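Two quick folds needed for the group meeting slides. Do the first one here.
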Amino acid sequence: MNTHTPLRSTSVIGLSALLAFSALGCSGNKNKDNISWGGGQGSDNTLTVSRTGEFGLYAASDPKNPIMVFHVEQGEPLGFESDVAGKVIVVADGHRVQMPDGQYTWNRMEPNTGEKKETKK
């Protein structure tokens, strides 16, 4: 009687599942160029753009129309900072713009359409 087979099978299945989930996690999160600010967050939230493109800043109250659009090069910062008073400052393409309190998202825009790229979650 071979008592090692079930353990070995379980280990192989577990390892296979772990590798599959790891691969899905990496491939499912390719668009890392979207970032949000949830009003009153109080801490900086920036990322380094993974590829050059157009980025629109959207308010949660109007998710279809960008407030502003910037062309941001690969490797440049994009996101949000807070000033000493806790006000949100949007950061893109070397610009820093103070915004009214609220919830905002930077989204990569589709080329030539102005439409924001939908992200899969």
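Then this one, please, same format:
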Amino acid sequence: MLIDWFTVGAQVLNFLILVWLMKRFIYQPILNTIDGREKKIADELADAAARKAEAIQERDDFKEKNEVFDQERADLLNKTTDDAETEGNRLLAEAKKARMNSARNGRKRCAPRPPICSKRSPGAPSRKCFPLREKRSPISPQPSWRNA
């Protein structure tokens, strides 16, 4: 078998030109595209990590503010409850005091009345005592206190 060295050399030269062309026009643009995508993905991951850190910070701030608001709400509720209880006790004491004052004043104003017919006093003419009767209405034959 005979080897034609010219053909082998031409094929090697042809192969080297083909490799150079492929590297220049196909492989290099593909590598540039891959590098660009890797850079874009790395930037997006860094941005996502920054957003996540920011979201965690905002969540912590929100939790802290929420705890402060809950504490303020509880304090305000306790204060309002205490104020309402104090006001209720004050009003109850005022009502008791007013009732006691009215009872005292009522006793002074409403002293026991002498009976309508008292026992015969010496030197006074004798009187008979009759129970008071209610007026009967012409419609109702019975006294009104029996209807109740």
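Slide caption for protein two: Helices lie at 5-109, 144-147.
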